[in-house]
Write a structure and sequence with these properties.
alpha/beta, four-stranded mixed beta sheet, 41% helix, 29% strand
Length: 94
């Protein structure tokens, strides 16, 4: 689920293959419209689809001249980003 408050877009629940496509579509508009902080504190489960989702939002934001930062990433997401060597291009707060 996505909730937007001010410049904060909060995700909650699982971000997996089963949910990533719908989340990507739902978040595309807000990500293109404003500089945002993506709050992942409510995320309960991730897989590599979460990386694909976040990378797509980074592309959308950059394409629209916006910035995107990722706050409170779950340890599993940080680990996956490192494993796939995308930690340097994802704006993860640590």
């Amino acid at each position: 689920m996505i909730r937007t408050e001010g410049n904060r877009l909060s995700l909650s629940g699982p971000v997996t293959l089963a949910t990533a496509a719908a989340l990507a579509e739902e978040g595309r508009g807000p990500v293109a419209a404003a500089d945002l902080v993506v709050d992942l504190s409510g995320v309960t489960q991730v897989d590599s689809s979460a990386l694909a989702l976040l990378l797509s939002w980074v592309r959308v934001a950059r394409g629209a001249g916006r910035t995107l930062s990722i706050d409170q990433p779950p340890a599993a997401l940080v680990s996956l980003a490192s494993l796939y060597d995308v930690d340097s291009i994802l704006p993860l707060a640590r």
